[in-house]
């Protein structure tokens, strides 16, 4: 099963961890794995290529079966437009990963964790 762990602090996403394999089908034919992978890679690419975050600040781990994304925390007034675009990327990811989870709940699980003190 693929596990997508969304970590929040003060209602803001700080990390996204995607681990495991769906087991839906053989490697190369697994549409569940492909869907989750495409969404996750699109999020990473959007953060790096569109919003110009340095790759080493966004991708903490990227290997088969385990990806860890660190979401930059923007607070400066001059970063508000960039923050808005980042929120759109994150919401798009969440909407679509939830749709995959609803359809393939035996193969993908979302865990949302609030680490607010």
TrEMBL record:
UniProtKB keywords: Hydrolase, Protease, Ribosome biogenesis, Thiol protease
Lineage: superkingdom: Bacteria
Keyword Hydrolase: yes
Gene3D superfamilies xrefs: Cysteine protease Prp (3.30.70.1490)
Pfam annotation, one family: Peptidase_Prp
Biological-process GO terms, alphabetical: proteolysis; ribosome biogenesis
GO molecular function, one term: cysteine-type peptidase activity
InterPro entries noted in UniProt: Peptidase_Prp, Peptidase_Prp_sf
Annotated family: Belongs to the Prp family.
Protein known as: Ribosomal processing cysteine protease Prp
Native source species: Pseudoramibacter porci
């Amino acid at each position: 099963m693929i596990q997508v762990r969304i970590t929040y602090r003060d209602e803001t996403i700080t990390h996204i961890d995607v681990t495991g394999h769906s087991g839906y089908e053989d490697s190369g034919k697994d549409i569940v794995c492909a869907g989750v992978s495409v969404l996750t890679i699109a999020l990473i690419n959007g953060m790096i290529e569109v919003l110009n975050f340095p790759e080493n600040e966004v991708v903490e781990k990227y290997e088969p079966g385990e990806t860890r994304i660190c979401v930059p925390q923007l607070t400066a007034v001059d970063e508000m437009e960039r923050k808005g675009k980042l929120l759109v990327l994150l919401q798009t990811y969440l909407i679509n990963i939830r749709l995959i989870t609803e359809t393939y709940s035996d193969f993908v699980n979302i865990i949302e964790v609030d680490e607010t003190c």
